[in-house]
Amino acid sequence: MKHVKITDESILVCVYYGLNGERLIRRGHKLATLLDCPLYILTVDTKPLDAFDAEKSGYIEKWTQLAEELEVEKFIIRDNEKRPIQKVISEVAKENNITQIIVGQSAQSRWEEITKGSFLNVLLKEVPFVDFHIVSVNRPIEDEAYGTYEKGVRAYVIRDIENYKIVFTCPKSESLEGIFFKEIGTDFDNGIFKFSFANKMHEITIKEGFVSNPHLIHAILSPAQ
Hints:
By secondary structure, the protein is of the alpha/beta class. It has five helices and 13 strands.
């Protein structure tokens, strides 16, 4: 369901390929929720969509799923684009009445130019009504709702009598594979476990090595006969 706009605010998140795209999108969603306004996502590429390699296509698929999950207003893909990025962002901002733009501070490839003063100066002249949020992406995954986490590691969730626990070596028993992000500053396996199921990303809390809320895991590893 699309957002019914009741304020004058609209947020645009600019993402490029890499693991920080989801962070930027979720940051934009959090801000859009606080302001009760629509959220747009934009990615730009010089190649046509059908020429994307497997890695790029994978990111597009993940971001599309995340956009559906968060019910964003629109996920905009500008492929086969030869114009300067600031021109494309400016055009999209004007077309969608954007008032706030979120970009990554150290994104790779063509997005590097967004952190330069010249880029911001040009863009501010073209869309002077826009506020910019420059988000650092050179730090551990962080979310105010969960705290700060170490770099993610591959992990598995397995059944343990009446509960489910996390292990870090591939088990012989039935398991669920994903990425575990451990809380910084704890000696226990506390953190979050992210995994993909039914073409959607899911996230569960781990406390002292065990799944806090096992209902979803139980439904996956112990489906009804």
